[in-house]
Specification:
The chain has seven helices and 15 strands. By secondary structure, it is α/β, with parallel strands linked by helices. It has two domains: about 120 residues, Nucleotidyltransferase, domain 5 (2-Layer Sandwich); about 110 residues, 2-Layer Sandwich (Nucleotidyltransferase, domain 5), CATH 3.30.420.40. α1 crosses α2 and α3 packs across α7. The termini are close together. The protein binds beta-D-glucopyranose.
Length: about 250
């Protein structure tokens, strides 16, 4: 089994890649990031991935891709923060054909969650664990005794007059020009709403803004223990590679 895999984290605003040691959960190269073009479609993302492969001189045969949508058997089933031209596209087939590499695709938050549970502070955590990524959207990864329940999409749950991520993602904080206190209180409402649904034992906050948890932690009052992700922004990249390794092992 090859342990070095090219791993991509496609985001609504930025697309990142690195070569990852998927056995140790460590980046073997720098992590390169390009802005994701507005309303990027399949061909734009394929172009970015091919450029990132060239930049990192990747010669391997497989790769993992974290992608911000529901992904069912490789097929993109939703498009909240990406172009709706992705809906119905078999991302694994499409990117494999474009890159001449075997591509394995997973929801980006599920990828981040896999990385945290395999290599993070909560390695092998038992019980119900909910990892949330706070960025342009809210990504969610739900685990029960270490087993992933994929595609939970808590950021798309209806809340007030919209969906939770439009209310309390980090992009909502910026858009509404909120103080840490105001945003912290709104995020707290949403976390408590999520708690009502799955009663987690542990909530892990990821995404860039989790680095600043000290600024808003005092406004968050959850029953579950709440901690920042250990891999912060790298979790998505590491987890995409890990997911590919898990799929390759099944073949
Ligand atoms: C998407 C999710 C994704 C999250 C974080 C949301 O807009 O619907 O699939 O996990 O953003 O990127």
């Amino acid at each position: 089994m090859k342990n070095k895999l090219f791993s991509v984290d496609v985001g609504a605003t930025g697309t990142k890649a690195a070569i990852v040691d998927v056995k140790k959960g460590k980046l073997l190269t720098e992590r390169i990031k390009y802005p994701t073009p507005d309303n990027a479609g399949p061909e734009d993302i394929a172009r970015l991935i091919k450029q990132l492969m060239i930049d990192l001189d990747y010669q391997g045969k497989s790769m993992g891709i974290g992608f911000p949508s529901i992904i069912h058997s490789g097929v993109c089933k939703s498009a909240v923060n990406v172009s709706d031209r992705f809906i119905g596209v078999n991302l694994e087939d499409y990117f494999s054909q474009e890159t001449s590499c075997r591509c394995f695709c997973v929801n980006d938050a599920d990828a981040a969650g896999l990385a945290e549970l395999h290599f993070g502070a909560v390695k092998n955590a038992q019980g119900t664990v909910l990892l949330l990524t706070l960025g342009t959207g809210i990504g969610s990864a739900l685990f029960r005794d270490g087993v992933l329940v994929p595609n939970t999409e808590f950021g798309s749950l209806h809340y007030k007059d919209g969906i939770t991520e439009h209310y309390a993602a980090n992009s909502a904080r910026k858009r509404k020009e909120q103080s840490w206190e105001t945003w912290g209180n709104e995020l707290n409402e949403v976390l408590q709403y999520f708690e009502r649904i799955v009663s987690p034992d542990l909530i892990i906050l990821g995404g860039g803004v989790s680095k600043k948890l000290d600024n808003y932690k005092s406004y968050l009052h959850t029953d579950a223990t709440l901690i920042p992700a250990q891999h912060l922004n790298e979790a998505g990249v590491i987890g995409a590679g890990l997911y590919a390794r898990m799929q390759l092992k099944k073949l």
